[in-house]
Amino acid sequence: MSAPQIESIPRPKALFEAIADSLRNRILNHELPPGAAIDETSVARELGVSRTPVREAIKVLARDGLVTVAHRRINHCTVTEFSAFELADLLRITEHLEAFHHDWETNPFVQDLLQRVTDKIYLALGPGFLTADLDARQALTEREAPPDRARQAARKALTDYFVWRRLEVAKRVMKTPS
User: Fold this and answer.
1) CATH 3.40.1190.20 fits 15-79, yes or no
2) Host H or E run for residue 176
3) d(CA 121, CA 151)
4) Neighbouring residues of 79: CB distance < 8 A, sequence distance ≥ 6
5) Tens of pLDDT, residues 136-154
6) Contact 114/97 with Cβ under 8 angstroms?
């Protein structure tokens, strides 16, 4: 007689994880734009929690590179700002990770790392780019090719996507003369 199957119960989020997710969404939507100060006391008051889970959430966001903590003091942090050169580096890293992910889809670590780097690009460029990029990704996944050429077509589509994204980033970063 075999033991009955037990369904896994989803683990509830810790409070600091929920706060980190909330702040991450606000950062990526530019409700907290790059360079904006994050005051842990006012965030705690706004959310109706103590400062401890807010501090822990800020540590998570600092680890992910979305906030910058001044001199190891959690109560002095800002939303990270990226220079054009850092943004170019992030794009190159993302392209390598996406190509690697395309070839090694079963590797769970690549997707997590790719998401962290992509979040930094979205932070730097704002919600308009986030929406355009997600639409382009959706169009990329909807492309179909004959089975005998599927791998080659997928690689070509990925390359086209990289070119589109670089051009889109350049348009957003370059200042147009007045």
Assistant:
1) no
2) none
3) 27
4) 27, 32, 33, 34, 35, 36, 38, 66, 67, 68, 123
5) 777 776 665 556 566 677 7
6) yes
